[in-house]
């Protein structure tokens, strides 16, 4: 009589290695929907380091009329934080920019904080993409930027039409998957979209998109993918953003 055992899927935390650079995080105090103060920031970062994170890029939201961040406000928040950090960490700062008309009108000013070199982290509204989305992406590239679209698996208006995601790729847009999507944190629909994107080799980079310590417990969850090797390969691509 033979007994067959299903191989246990790895926990998400098991895939985080010392070479991994987290290119999407909300860890700065008091400037978006991340930590409210320096104490919360320090606690969050300390916990991230404890579970294996090494290099972090803080990417607070820049959304006109909501979080009116600038390179100056972001750097000021980081300066206040770094003197209070209890543990050594490799942290850089950038931002996550909402693609809307205000953003479009200010591209030519080139006053953005990039992930590295000319790689710029951008996001879309969860309600609908801007009608001039491809004009915005074109204008970004004309001005020397490479757009990296945050969490494409979370935009429900793309769930039923993968061709729209493929069109974004063809337009020169890189895609960044949220790690928590592959453990079901955002729900079944987002998990299924994450599977489709990964299996179609459309994902270029990953990020934690961490906002608080409550989310960290989900890194102990099992990865809900059949082919974890593809995800591991994408995680390793984040090494591009090492100093």
Please outline the helices and strands:
Elements lengths: L20 E5 L12 H13 L4 E4 L2 E2 L8 H12 L7 E4 L2 E3 L2 H5 L13 E5 L9 H10 L3 E5 L11 H9 L3 E5 L9 H12 L5 E3 L20 H10 L6
Parallel strand pairs: 1-2, 2-4, 3-5, 5-6, 6-7, 7-8, 8-9
Which key terms come to mind for this protein?
alpha/beta, six-stranded parallel sheet, three-stranded parallel sheet, TIM Barrel, 243 residues, disordered N terminus
Describe this structure in words.
The chain has a single domain, classed as Alpha-Beta Barrel (TIM Barrel). The N and C termini lie far apart (55 Å). With 243 residues, the chain is α/β, with parallel strands linked by helices. It is globular. 29% of the residues lie in helices and 15% in strands. Strand 1, helix 1 and strand 2 form a beta-alpha-beta unit. The strands form 2 sheets. A 6-stranded parallel sheet has the order 3-5-6-7-8-9. A 3-stranded parallel sheet has the order 1-2-4, covered by helices on one side.
